[in-house]
Write a structure and sequence with these properties.
By secondary structure, the protein is α/β, with parallel strands linked by helices. It is built from 18 helices and 13 strands. A seven-stranded parallel β-sheet has the order 3-2-1-4-5-6-7, with helices on both faces. The N and C termini lie far apart (45 Å).
Length: 417
């Protein structure tokens, strides 16, 4: 039986974020192969975290800059280690390499953090994003270095896969396209959805701590929602998401039809009651969980080019409309809300996107085959990744010494106390 260690940046919260949903999908993928999974994290536990132990996953608390981790991985001796996001690989990768040199190292990027952060910075600066901004950013250098140091990186979007190959010249053998892993929408499932006439109002959902989500909520409040409300004065916008801060709850205004609902225990239950999902994202990366959830609920959506990025096949039509100006966005939302024929076609488009792009069985089989091939040819695979070896030699040494310095500093601090 294969043993796999997942080092989580946070504990999985599938009802709070798309990243949590993605992690749970990965766990279930590995379990379906009969693999023994240990999930370890240095993060604090939360009220919304999923009880992974109910799945048969072993849970472990670890610490950054602590030699106890060395003993932990030596005792566990997994065949595979998955780093959840590049920051985790920076913190623990050198220890894994040192103590488990023959273990397959996989990076789960979630989305390209450097792409999201650089887009966010250029948006706030009022400048137009271009790839030179991305390449010059420190976070891109860190993230790309992490990709090189790992044997394989899981990339959630075909847009980001192409970006890595074309803009950063990453060897295709180091990256693997793995989008959301979803079951197909059958006719039976469709029949259980509320029909057009039984649905009311607009909705949006997303973790309030995620900056692209928070920015989109402000954009709705200040610019887009007044345009929609002017034409549809009886409609409401219901906003769901984990961790709403006071600045978000202060936006709650029933007179304007603007309702901050907070955390939803079951995202699909609330989304399927709405007629239209709104996601005016102005920066971000990866693929958007809220838009996939909307499709899984038969709820058409309006989003932006960035919102739909990585979620459209060559022959696909969107699950609604893609609009990038507030006026066009609002007009499309009104049209979709009022026109039953357009709404039904949008719903069907969403079904086709889910059933063609996110096929769980196909993507699972491809990943398992890829992992098997790598394990059988790991020495040869690594010999062709000279940049990765070089980065291990240099940057990981500096990371190791910094970590050891912090470790010693912590010991002295503990003695003083």
């Amino acid at each position: 039986m294969k043993s796999i260690l997942i080092i989580g940046n946070v504990w999985p919260e599938p009802n709070s974020s798309a990243a949590g949903t993605r992690m749970l999908q990965l766990i279930q993928l590995f379990l379906s192969e009969g693999w023994k999974i240990t999930f370890a994290s240095a993060a604090a536990e939360s009220n919304h975290m999923y009880d992974i132990q109910t799945l048969g996953v072993t849970k472990a608390n670890i610490e950054i800059n602590n030699t106890n981790f060395d003993n932990f991985v030596n005792d566990l001796n997994p065949n595979i280690v998955v780093f959840d996001r590049f920051m985790t690989e920076e913190q623990f990768g050198w220890r894994v390499s040192k103590h488990l040199p023959d273990t397959l190292r996989i990076l789960n990027t979630e989305d390209l953090h450097s792409l999201r952060k650089t887009r966010q910075e250029t948006f706030k600066a009022g400048t137009i994003f271009n790839y030179s901004d991305l390449k010059n950013s420190d976070i891109a250098k860190r993230e790309i270095a992490s990709i090189y140091r790992c044997d394989l990186s899981l990339i959630i979007s075909d847009f980001e896969t192409n970006l890595l190959k074309e803009e950063f010249n990453i060897d295709k053998k180091l990256i693997h396209y793995l989008p959301f892993l979803l079951d197909p929408i059958t006719e039976e499932i469709k029949q259980r959805w509320p029909v057009f006439s039984k649905r009311n109002h607009f909705t949006t959902i997303g973790n309030f701590r995620h900056e692209p989500n928070w920015n989109s909520i402000l954009y709705l409040k200040e610019t887009i929602w007044p345009l929609i409300r002017k034409q549809l004065p009886e409609t409401e916008l219901h906003i769901y998401g984990a961790y709403p801060p006071p600045k978000a709850t202060q936006l709650h205004n029933p007179k304007q039809g603007f309702h901050i609902k907070g955390w939803a225990k079951n995202a699909q239950e609330v989304i399927k009651q709405a007629r239209v999902c709104l996601a005016p994202l102005r920066f971000g990366a990866g693929i958007k969980g809220k838009l996939a959830e909307a499709m899984l609920c038969g709820t058409p959506s309006i989003t932006t080019t960035i919102g739909a990025e990585g979620m459209l096949g060559e022959d696909s039509d969107w699950n609604g409309f893609i609009k990038d100006t507030p006026e066009e966005f609002a007009n499309a939302a009104i049209k979709l809300y009022n026109n039953q024929n357009i709404w039904h076609q949008a719903q069907q488009n969403g079904i086709e996107i889910i059933n063609t792009l996110f096929q769980k069985d196909r993507h699972t089989n491809q990943l398992i085959q890829c992992i098997s091939n790598l394990q059988n040819n790991l020495k040869e695979h690594r010999s062709k990744n000279f940049i990765g070896s070089m980065l291990h030699h240099h940057s990981m040494k500096s990371t190791e010494f910094m970590s050891r310095w912090i470790e010693e500093k912590n010991k002295i601090s503990d003695q003083d106390n």
